[in-house]
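Running co-folding for NDP.
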Amino acid sequence: TGTPLAGRVAVVTGASSGIGAATAQRLAQLGAKVVVMARRKDKLDTLVDSIQASGGVAMALPVDVTDRQAVQAAADQITEQFGRADLVFNNAGVQLISAIDELRLDDWQRQIDLNITGVMNVIGAFLPHLSAAAEAGKPADLITTSSIAATRILEKFSIYSGTKAYISHLTRLLRVELGQKNIRVATIEPGMVDTELPDHVTDPDATKLMADLIDQIDVLQSSDIAETVAFMAAVPRHVNLTEITILPTAQA
Ligand code: NDP
């Protein structure tokens, strides 16, 4: 059918641009009610308008996911307005690559705060939702965005790669505990996707490295990731696609 995710309540973080925005759109198209979270309210509002204009159901919650109380408040608001969430796409992340001896400590901290602490805040606030959904016999998905950087040894990627290695390994560990409770735990590890991600890097050499790759090869689009995440959530409840690596065909 056209609505394999009907009845699902999805939360997407990092939904104001790139992978998160495309995934929110796709999940809504497939029938899920979607809550979009990020800091830029104007972008979220535009996304919600566009989802609603195509007949979907969506709500914007401007939240900085590094703020634990704010994430908890959002989870409570979702319970009131949409019911408990059963599909959490824990996707907000930042990539600030640089050589370690440049000592960009602010960039190190921002990546750790968002890619690790932000991800944990979302898990803390929404695990009770996922548990309740699973106990009620419904599908329950916790899908986090990692990266091929989790396993590849890429020069200047140390802190970013460290945070993504954390995500990939966390997924394996949580799956052991939560799979038995019928919560599916998964991660998607993309290669190069054309998004705003490189725009935030403060090291000009690193920015150029990524811009060049986008020029040279046919990289992934956010819609490619969106389609994959939707698939991971739409398979039958006893099937857990746990780690999906998705690369542009021409990326080495
Ligand atoms: P974008 O920069 O387009 O998206 C990042 C999103 O995170 C934005 O919506 C941003 O919105 C949000 N965000 C940033 N800080 C916060 C915060 N404190 N609280 C809440 N939301 C926040 O890049 P992508 O779409 O590429 O990135 C999405 C994920 O994909 C990241 O985890 C990234 O590491 C991963 N990834 C990306 C790859 C790529 O090649 N693009 C490859 C592999 C993985 P706002 O500023 O409004 O808060």
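Result summary
The pocket of NDP is lined by residues 13-20, 38-40, 43, 64-66, 91-95, 114, 118, 145, 147, 190, 192-193, 195-197 (CB under 6 Å).
DSSP finds seven helices and seven strands in the chain.
Job closed.
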